[in-house]
Amino acid sequence: MLCEAARMRIATWNVNSVTARLPRLLAWLDSARPDVLCLQELKCTDDAFPTEQVRELGYEVASHGTGRWNGVAILSKAGLDDVVRDLPGQPAYDGAIEPRAIGATCGGVRLWSVYVPNGREPGHAHYDYKLDWLAALNDTVAADTAADPSRPLAVLGDFNIAPTDDDVWDIALFTESTHITEPERKALAALRDTGLADVVPRPLKYDHPYTYWDYRQLAFPKNNGMRIDLVYGDAAVAGAVSDAYVDREERKGKSPSDHAPVVVDLDR
DNA sequence: ATGCCCTATGATATAGGA
After folding, report:
1. Is the CB of A121 under 7 A from strand B?
2. What pLDDT digit, counting tens, does each position of A3-21 carry?
3. Which nucleotide is nearest to A22 (CA to C1')?
4. What is the model's pLDDT at position A3?
């Protein structure tokens, strides 16, 4: 059960640099007014995170960033407790534990903001790292669930996996690529086996709820997109969903991220 | 118009993104 609020809007957004996206981020928070926003690809240190400007809009901030790459955060107007940085048992890459996960409890809901490794290409060390990382995520979800089975839980973020062939604009172009391989999709299936469900958002336009469009080659106007930003919720969360959508408006205009926010409304 | 890649960095290129 959601403890503190009957209604709660949660969202996730890979902003591709929180500094470069700051004007759009602040405007979007002010208009969409999520209770909780999970961010990925901050590309800044915690010291450089625009904490004060986000606070002025009523959000508490827990960020986890080390600089040039990666970085995740949770912004909340519904409380921000029991913050955990990194997954327990998170694998290292090239000797470093990268800032790709942060967990917190907001309004009685356990939430994780995750930026799953890209994988580069099948067979690359980064691809094995991606699968190892997903296994650690699975263990984290299982442990969190075991710790308090009555507490709703959701994982939100950039999973860098298209769950089905329909989640990319042309599957024929992906035969040599990551994001669609069986081991990656099996990792998602394992996550579902822990009791989570893929909360599929509705698109605001066209037939597929893509969340990412490359900056190049007119991908957005052509709707050459991918659904890789996902919300995985347990039965309590999935059962409380009253609406879910991709805010593709945020992919338009001046200086957009290449990802759009995914918004999920919960109503018990 | 949704419009032909973007970001941060010991920066005059490069790594990474997906």
Report:
1. no
2. 555 799 999 999 999 999 9
3. B7
4. 53
Token duo for residue A11: 């969202």
Name every residue whose Cβ is closer than 8 Å to that of residue A189 and which is 6 or more positions away in sequence: none
Nearest to A265 by CA among A154, A105, A149: A154
- Kindly list the domain boundaries of chain A, sorted by start residue: 7-267
Q: Which residues pair with A39 in a beta bridge?
A: A13, A73
Please determine, looking at this structure, whether the domain spanning A7-267 carries the CATH number 3.60.9.10.
Answer: no
- Measuring from the CA of residue A229 to each C1' atom, give the nucleotide at the shortest distance: B18
- d(Cα A99, Cα A115) in Å, to the nearest integer? 8
List, for residues A74-109, the tens digit of each pLDDT value: 999 999 999 999 999 999 999 999 999 999 999 999
Predicted pLDDT of residue A155 = 98
- State the average pLDDT for chain A: 96
- The Cα A232–Cα A73 span in angstroms is 17
- Residue A1's pLDDT band (boundaries 50, 70, 90)? very low
Length A120 CA → B16 C1' (Å): 9
d(CA A11, CA A97): 25
Of A residues 21-60, those with CB within 7 angstroms of nucleic strand B are 41, 43-45
How many angstroms separate the CA of A92 from the C1' of B15?
A: 18
